[in-house]
Each structure stands twice: as C-alpha cells, then as structure tokens.
Specification:
alpha/beta, single chain, six-stranded mixed sheet, 7 helices, two-stranded antiparallel sheet, 40% helix
Length: 214
C-alpha cells in the first residue's frame, strides 16, 4: 500500500478536524460486523466542508495521475465513495461510473451504473479500506464486465494485515491518502489523544476482531 507521509499527516489533520474520524478508546463504537472499535470513520462528512473536500479531491486526482496515469474513467464504490469519486472524475475531466454491492433486483438489473465500454480502464475510488472485501467485490464486478483495473485509491485505511493480503492476492495496487499509524501520530501531536489512549488504539489495530474481549 503506497502513501506519502506529508499527505497522510495532512489527511489525518482534516479528517479529525471535521470529525470524519472519531477516536473514543474509553467508550468504543460497535461496527456492523459486531467488532468493538475505539475508532469510527465516516468520510462522507467531508462532502459537507468545501475546503476539505476540495483538498481531498485535488490530492486524490493528482495522486491518480502520478501513480496510475490518466484512466478512461473513474469508478466509485457505492455508496461511500460515490460523492468523492464523482468530484475526482470532474477534476480530471473524466467519465464517472459507480459499482453497487450487488446487481439491482429490478429494471436493467445493473451492478455497474453509468456508461463504460468493455476494454476501457478505470481507477477505482474508495473512501475507506477495512478488510478490503467490499472494495474487491467492486473490482470483481468491473472485471466481470470486461473493464481493466489500473489500481485503487482510497482516502483512509485501517492498515489491517488481512486487507494487505486480500489486495496482494487479487494483484490490485492500492494507494491511500491517509493511514492508521499516521493518524495516531497526528492525534498524539495535537493532544487529541493521550499516551495511554495511544496504547489502547494500537492494541486494537493489532487484533481488532478479538479486541472486544480485552
């Protein structure tokens, strides 16, 4: 997983600033998976703050061009990455499509929404990487539709080993603007968390599925 430390620090700063990421070691959140977690990330909040969404849009667009070159289209993963993916596509002057978790059960029964031709290539935009399962499900749908994947870019990753393994197995290159380790550095530097809370947050990240039993 490729990232730039300066970009990661700035991304952590803005995500914490607008509470897109919340850290609560003493009163953990419960994820849909049932995992107890001292962190909750909702990057859709970025869309409500023009200066910050512009920073994410422009940084992501420039990183795409630098790392992957200009694709034929940008593909967003529904629903969290539709907004930022469309902004990135607009900035680059490219078509935009998005991928549903599953095909619709009515109408044209699309899983891929928007116009793209077989053989064209895309960069997939995600808002958040946890295990990578939903992101790679979108990649599979695109590949099944005859679309070539240049790579994926996301706003933030938790940095779980399982995600790294999943992306390596599918041979999909992932680039992220921010990551968990740099987020904790930034949170500590700005007194958002204490040293004790840092230890708790690090312990969770090393074994998130079992952390609720600690």
């Amino acid at each position: 997983m490729i990232f730039n430390k300066d970009t990661a620090k700035k991304t952590a700063e803005v995500l914490l600033q607008v509470n897109a990421i919340k850290l609560s070691p003493t009163n953990p959140f419960t994820w849909a998976s049932g995992w107890k977690s001292p962190i909750y990330c909702d990057n859709r909040i970025i869309l409500s703050f023009p200066p910050i969404r512009n920073y994410i849009r422009e940084t992501m667009a420039k990183q795409i061009e630098k790392q992957y070159g200009k694709p034929d289209a940008i593909a967003g993963v529904a629903t969290g990455a539709i907004g930022i993916g469309m902004l990135v596509a607009e900035y680059l002057g490219l078509p935009f499509i998005y991928v549903r978790p599953d095909a619709k059960g009515h109408g044209r029964k699309n899983q891929i929404e928007g116009y793209i031709e077989k053989g064209q290539n895309v960069v997939v935009v995600e808002d958040l990487i946890s295990t990578g399962k939903s992101s790679l499900n979108a990649v599979k749908a695109l590949k099944d539709g005859g679309i070539k994947i240049k790579g994926m870019i996301a706003i933030f990753t938790y940095g779980f080993d399982i995600a790294t393994e999943n992306f390596e197995r599918e041979e999909i290159q992932l680039q992220t603007l921010g990551n968990y380790d740099i987020l904790l550095e930034q949170a500590l530097e700005t007194n958002y968390i204490t040293e004790k809370e840092l230890k708790t947050l690090a312990e969770w990240n090393s074994n998130p599925s079992e952390w609720n039993t600690i």
